[in-house]
Amino acid sequence: MKKLNTLFRPLTHPLPDDTQCPKCRFFDVEDQRVRQILKENYPDTWETVLFNARCKCESLHRAEQEKERHKWIFSNIPNRFGNATPNTFSNFKQVEGTESAYQSCQDFILRRGKRILTLVGTYGSGKSHLLEAVARDFMHDGDAVRYEYVPSMLNELRSTVMASENNGSLWTKLQERFAPKLLILDDLGQESPTEWTRKTLTEIVDERIRTNGYLLCATNYTQDQLRERIDERFVSRLFDRSEVSVLTCPTYANRP
Questions:
Q1: Which class for 92: exposed (0-12), middle (13-18), buried (19 or more C-beta within 10 A)?
Q2: 103 is a domain residue
């Protein structure tokens, strides 16, 4: 029988062998036998002893679980909570007009080709489904991801600017978006076009280009329409550096 090396006197009864972790040599403190023995030997301080006796591997496991939970919360991807059905490649409904975009996303998750991918298609064509599927694949590979619905992101960033006397807080918020390996911008072009939104979006794209980071975008607008809504410089930077894939299929509601 192994004795708990953190205790200062021998136990009246040894802790059961089958409660001891073969890896860290500490114990499963949820086992009632362990709890009872420690209570009998340390009636006044048994809770402290119990804490010291716990399996360290389990603590590490819980820490990893918590880290993973925070990673998914920070990702901001849709359908990440509760019983929501995740959008994956396996449940993407492929129809005529989606082949190119689907293949482009497959190449993207395999890190083949350009590091910026832009999906263009009408509302309900499956763009957001593919964005989430790519995000999940990156995350399952252990990479950090940040999904942004562009109008909401810009509203948040604008509020940060208004609440601050300088642009320091805005830069901090942008740095949070830049930290993950993959940044996703959904519904690009839906925002109200202003000089501030143009500058901010251009800065985000420029950062991905400068750092060779991964960027995945989706928009309902063509290049010409985005030039009108944002500006020439932004569109040139984005489309010159990205793989562009157009979904020509009808909306999900109209699919057979």
A1: middle
A2: yes
Per-residue model confidence as pLDDT tens digits over 131-155: 999 999 999 998 999 999 999 999 9
Which bin fits 190, alpha (ψ -120 to 50), beta or left (φ > 0)? alpha
pLDDT for 101 beyond 90: yes
Are residues 107 and 42 part of one domain?
Answer: no
Residues 46 and 118 occupy one common structural domain: no
Whole domain around residue 141: which residue ranges?
99-254
Calculate what percentage of the chain has a pLDDT beyond 70.
89
The pair of three-digit structure tokens given for residue 160, joined into one six-digit string:
């940060």
Is this structure's pTM higher than 0.90? no
Whether residues 27 and 103 fall in one domain: no
| Cα 216 to Cα 214: distance, rounded to the nearest angstrom | 7
**So what's the pLDDT on residue 2?**
43
Structural domain total, the chain: 2
**How far out from the chain centre does Cα 19 lie?**
36
